[in-house]
Amino acid sequence: MKLPETQVAVLEAASADDPTPVEQIAEETGEQVQAVAGAAFELEEKGLLAVTERIDAELVLTQEGEQYAFEGLPEHSLWVGALSGGADEEPIELGKAIGPAGLQGEQVDIALSNFARKGMGDIDSGTVAVDPEFDPDSDPEHALLERLSEEEGVDPAETDDDRVDALERRGLVEVEESTVREVTLTDEGVTAMMEGVEVAETVGQVTPELLTSGEWEDVEFAEYNVQADAETVHGGKPHALREMSERVKDVLVGMGFEEMQGPHVDADFYINDCLFMPQDHPARNHWDRFALEEPAQMDRENLPPDLVDRVEAAHRDGVGPDGEGYHSPWDEDFARALALRGHTTNLSVRHLAGLAEGDIDPPQRYFSIEKAYRNDTLDATHLLEFFQIEGWVMAEDLSVRDLMGTFTEFYEQFGITDIQFKPHYNPYTEPSFELFGRHPETDELIEIGNSGIFRPEMLEPLGVEADVMAWGLALERLFMLATGAEDIRDVHGTLVDLDFLRNEEVVY
Ligand SMILES: N[C@@H](Cc1ccccc1)C(=O)O
């Protein structure tokens, strides 16, 4: 019997007794997996080979599991932290163990409950004592995480059940199923092999030489299998969030808005003081802002002196005849401190001030879609940097209805019709509203933005006479509502889910 080369190779590599995975044959023959699968199907059609499929289960680490395989389990970190504080001698305050352990946010609770469960020591009314005999290296959960980080193809059925259960419940491991295609020689196949199978010379392509020599009449052409699996080719494409941002721009431009741009690093004067944020406001000294070390301050000559005077007066005494300021000190040096902007409202301030200087008449509408930076704890809905959809409208006699109407119109463009408003407080707006939208998958209300009508204490120093309503909306949250994405870290950051990004069709 004469067969194409790949088919002969597959027949030779297959066995009549043990089903052989297609991948293994590809490895042994040096052929592509797709080519082997194609050949196998052709041999199946000729009755020489049987192709079967089975589901293979493999135990793998989740992202969190990978993190703990690398850093150690949180309860181990707690144990080490407590031990370094002397908790093997006598109980120490929990805080003194958690700090050195480097635990943050929900990891603290995870550490505490597992520490107790594994009897690694005692936790009692805010203190911790450790059992010095406990050996993290012999903790079976740790051993399994380590093994999974080193070994592929671990069969869940052959792994200690309790341990797998415990780690599955903690969301650190999961069972991944895949389809394995296997081939076995049929009786006919065995007979054919015994009688002898030869490689038929086949030609894959017609060449000018074949045509001119007339040889084409005698050769056998390779058959194409148009049903064979082909390798998936992922072309480049714009990032889903970028597409979303472009779409938001289109919508806002369609609503009559112009785009504004400005510095990522700015003086607190523009980020906070011009927004009537008191200098002793906790957020201004708090660890959640990224301050610049070098240079630490904006040069004095870069702040307009008149504006500085007017902002200082508003802070001290308020505006208008009955104004109430903060009656607390205001320090220009403090206002010159440089930081990564925690919101893009510094851009609104700069544009309002610039426009007022040129005596521009209302109505005016501006927006930006730019990064803002906050030292938040990373989780499914928070990143250290995010895109804020900043916007404002300057007009005579604006009311809350105008604000709500604008949001309703805007979100409708993305199919989001169920928006809720919650009264809020911002030093620079009155009234102020937080916006919430319902997540299509989890049905939970998530915060999507913050808004309000700028106060006279903010507008007067900038020289703006009309009303201004304004907002900051999170692009990522809009993305989550519009696409159903549940974890923002799948979309951007360092742990993105490439499959999600490749396959997500961003259609709004
Ligand atoms: N700066 C606000 C958003 C906002 C902008 C303008 C007016 C009101 C609110 C924030 O980051 O949350």
Automatic annotation (TrEMBL):
Residue ranges constituting the Aminoacyl-transfer RNA synthetases class-II family profile domain according to the UniProt record: 248-490
InterPro entries documented for this protein: aa-tRNA-synth_II (IPR006195), aa-tRNA-synth_II/BPL/LPL (IPR045864), Phe-tRNA-synth_IIc_asu (IPR004529), Phe_tRNA_ligase_alpha_bac/arc (IPR022917), Phenylalanyl-tRNA_Synthase (IPR002319), WH_DNA-bd_sf (IPR036390)
Classification via Pfam families: tRNA-synt_2d
GO biological process: phenylalanyl-tRNA aminoacylation
Top-rank taxon, per record: Archaea
Gene Ontology MF: a single term: magnesium ion binding
Keyword Cell inner membrane: no
Subunit structure: Tetramer of two alpha and two beta subunits.
Record family assignment: Belongs to the class-II aminoacyl-tRNA synthetase family. Phe-tRNA synthetase alpha subunit type 2 subfamily.
Protein name: Phenylalanine--tRNA ligase alpha subunit
UniProt organism field: Halosimplex carlsbadense 2-9-1
Species lineage: Archaea, Methanobacteriati, Methanobacteriota, Stenosarchaea group, Halobacteria
